[in-house]
Amino acid sequence: MEIQERSGFFMITMDTIIREGHPTLREIAKEVTFPLTEQEQQLGKDMFEFLVNSQDPIKAEELHLRGGVGLAAPQVNVSKRMIAVLVPSEQEDGEPEFAGVLYNPKIVSHSVQDACLGDGEGCLSVDRDVPGYVVRHARVTIAYQDETGAAHKIRLKNYPSIVVQHEIDHLNGVLFYDRINADNPFAIKEGVLVLE
Ligand SMILES: O=CN(O)C[C@@H](CC1CCCC1)C(=O)N1NCCC[C@H]1C(=O)Nc1ccccn1
Ligand code: NI
């Protein structure tokens, strides 16, 4: 058992985030097992901290962070099934709409109805605009484990549902533009919910 060097201070910044073209973004990430290693626990905290910092106007400015509402471990070159999500409330000072670090997240059921963000999507790992509707499930039931390994099952709709689906896609090597209709980026079928 090599002596684990107590790592110095580490913080996720834009330099930590790998960009499209890096093979890790197209890998299928591996499930994490419990109990988590020290590194896996710390990584979950660091990923969430990045989102908090990126949404803090002062810190984001200071650290040159792009504001993010979600982050998946493969984006920091760790091919493990863990995601962090911090969806702010619509009101200025309200509680976050959805916040947490989810281990081994899995869509266990979903609505027949699809949905997409009216403004399309972007990605911190994609340094270009790719216009078009990213068609996803409108509502999802997600099973996941928390940092203690406890199992949870939650139902999500609207923006939080879209964000979590974007993050789970990263664990399966899928990028948002894979879900844009190549022939007509803004084509949507009857009944698709467009979230403004
Ligand atoms: O995998 C994870 N990512 O790639 C970070 C993405 C995740 C979201 C994209 C669409 C659904 C999930 C992200 O957050 N963005 N995409 C690129 C730049 C903008 C930024 C964003 O939407 N920021 C934001 C939005 C509302 C409030 C505050 N900030
Ligand atoms: Ni992304």
UniProtKB/TrEMBL annotation:
Q: Does the record carry Kinase as a key word?
A: no
Could you name the domain of life of the organism this protein comes from? Bacteria
Single GO MF annotation: metal ion binding
List, alphabetically, the InterPro entries matched: Peptide_deformylase, Peptide_deformylase_sf
Kindly name one Pfam family recorded for this protein: Pep_deformylase
Q: Which reaction does it catalyse?
A: N-terminal N-formyl-L-methionyl-[peptide] + H2O = N-terminal L-methionyl-[peptide] + formate
Does Iron count among this protein's keywords? yes
Q: Which UniProt keywords apply?
A: Hydrolase, Iron, Metal-binding, Protein biosynthesis
Q: What class of enzyme is it?
A: hydrolase
Residues engaged in binding Fe cation: C123, H166, H170
Cite the active-site annotation: E167
Xref: PANTHER family:
PEPTIDE DEFORMYLASE (PTHR10458), PEPTIDE DEFORMYLASE 2 (PTHR10458:SF8)
Name the family: Belongs to the polypeptide deformylase family.
List, alphabetically, the HAMAP family matched: Pep_deformylase
Task: Say what the protein does.
Answer: Removes the formyl group from the N-terminal Met of newly synthesized proteins. Requires at least a dipeptide for an efficient rate of reaction. N-terminal L-methionine is a prerequisite for activity but the enzyme has broad specificity at other positions.
What's the protein called, per UniProt? Peptide deformylase
